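**User:** Everyone, produce a chain:

**Assistant:**
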Amino acid sequence: MKLIKTEEAVGQVLCHDITQIIPGVVKGARFRKGHVVAEEDIPVLLSLGKDHLYIWEKDDTMYHEDEAAQILCSVCQNEYMEASEVKEGKIELTAACEGVFQVDVERLDAINDIDQIMIATRHTDSPVKKGDKLLGTRVIPLVIKKEKMELVKERAGSTPLCRLVPFKLHTAGIVTTGNEVFCGRIQDKFTPVVEKKLAAYGITVKEHQIVNDEKANIVSAIRDMKERGVDLIIATGGMSVDPDDQTPGAIKEAGTEVVTYGAPVLPGAMLCLAYFPDGTPVLGLPGCVMYAKATIFDLVLPKVAAGIHISRREITRLGHGGLCLGCGECHFPSCGFGKG
């Protein structure tokens, strides 16, 4: 660092905090360490009795923390994220819309492995609302070698490290299966639960059919939903291995490609996930969705609502963190359920 006249400090980086004291009004840092002196700062600094300042000597091999933060922001941000102003070398990204926030965790880890670099994010596949905080970036020191930031760019690659995918599905059809409901022996308590969960993602139930346990009738109802053009089809009931439970087979017979029947998640092991050739998703929901606060349905619904195709590998990887502990007071999604 070196000492220079304050009038000559525009564009220079302060080495230390500068305190402002106004009796009875304020006492605290008026300018923080790392602040880049602007033209309008000069009169203020002089009024604080600072005729000279200690500043960092410029070095073409180093970035100031604010410059480095901009680079970190650029490797993270996609078009649905809004960046804060740089403050003390930190930039935060917030959601510009509702959607699913996704992180390439492998690349994130590779960048955070670089000494003096940090990017802290939400968990990948988190549903977010407009204005929600997504991540924060900064470098640890006040200045950092440019070669380290080049390594950041190299490990980040050509696409953003993170992305926010807006919700895009708007309509759904529900096929309620089971002789007990069809014949009026019990009330359908499943559909209201599903409708409420769908509404949280802007999806309205436009079609609803109740059918008995005959596979042909379930197949017909699913195909009818498809012909009516809903964005998502959900079948409830009949998902176990009992002889009368025909829903998984009916989903396949309706003309879908089944991604999985079964998931390493409790509650929710009997989930069925399938897609029609045009990409329309079909979910067969196990009975636990009707009474448990958080299930496999809550883990896959955000991605389904965003139109993201879910692979079998993505389902099988839910096992790490896929055990709900059934807490007396449920805090989902602010807990470890589904967060591997």
